[in-house]
Structure formats: C-alpha cells, structure tokens
Amino acid sequence: MVVRSELTDAEVDAIFQALADATRRDILARVIEREQSVSAIAERYTMSFAAVQKHVAVLERALLVTKERRGREQIVHAHPQSIEHARRLLDDYERLWRSRIHRMQDILDEGNA
Questions:
Q1: Where would I find the H helices in the chain?
Q2: Over pLDDT 90: what percentage of the chain?
Q3: Tens digits of per-residue pLDDT, 55-96?
Q4: Rounded CA gap, 89 and 91, in Å?
Q5: CB–CB of 78/87 below 8 Å?
Q6: CB burial class (10 A; 0-12, 13-18, 19+) of residue 11?
Q7: Hey, how many other C-beta atoms are within 10 angstroms of the C-beta on 17?
Q8: Do 58 and 24 form a contact (C-beta atoms < 8 A)?
Q9: Which residue from 52, 55, 73, 82 has the least number of CB within 10 angstroms?
Q10: How many other C-beta atoms are found inside a 10 Å radius of the C-beta of residue 86?
Q11: Please, is 15 exposed, middle or buried when counting C-beta atoms within 10 Å of its C-beta (0-12, 13-18, 19+)?
C-alpha cells in the first residue's frame, strides 16, 4: 500500500510546515471557530502585528486559510477543503501502519503456532 495524495508534494509540504508551528495551529483553530480579522487575531498574542501577519501568510500559502478584504480590515477564513485533504492523508498513513502491524502480528502468530 502506497499513500497517494490528491495534492502535490509541494502542497502537502506547505500544509504540514504550516501546521508544525504551535502559533499557526492556534490561529487556524481560532478561525475555524469563526472568521476573524488579522487585527483581532493579533490582539491575542504578545508578538508584533507583523509577526502575526507572517503566520497568517504561511497559513494562506498552505491554502489552510484565505483572507478577504472588508473595508480596512482583512478577514481570515479557514479553508476546510485543505484541512480535509490533510486529514485524509493522515488517515491513509494510519491505515498503512495498521496494516503493517496486523501483518507483523500474523507472522508472530504463525511462529507461535
């Protein structure tokens, strides 16, 4: 069994690199709960507004969020389809490893019979 993704390797890399950072995971969790402006997101962190913008940009490049300009604010939305792609890829890896574990158990059981 080989795990194949609907995404390109570069897209998968971007998603998991974005999710490798705790701040970005927290930002993503907040915008999954409800859309928020970059300003509102930045108020929740002790880092600079520019640093928060960079985290949002990484999430945006990974297609995990999108930004929409509303007047003077940029509203950040979660992009559920990319999150679903990442979940399915992890599910595929879990099935692969479970399959391998079952085969190893079968081999061990044959040796004990």
A1: 9-19, 22-33, 38-42, 49-61, 80-112
A2: 73
A3: 999 999 999 999 999 999 999 999 988 888 888 888 999 999
A4: 5
A5: no
A6: middle
A7: 13
A8: yes
A9: 73
A10: 19
A11: buried
CA 70/CA 53 separation, integer angstroms = 16
pLDDT at 2 over 60: no
* Residue whose pair of structure tokens reads 């509303």 in the numeric block: 70
- Determine contact, residues 63/82, Cβ cutoff 8 Å: yes
Structure tokens at 22: 């705790």
What pTM did the predictor assign?
A: 0.79
**Which two tokens mark 27?**
């930002």
Span 89-104, average pLDDT: 93
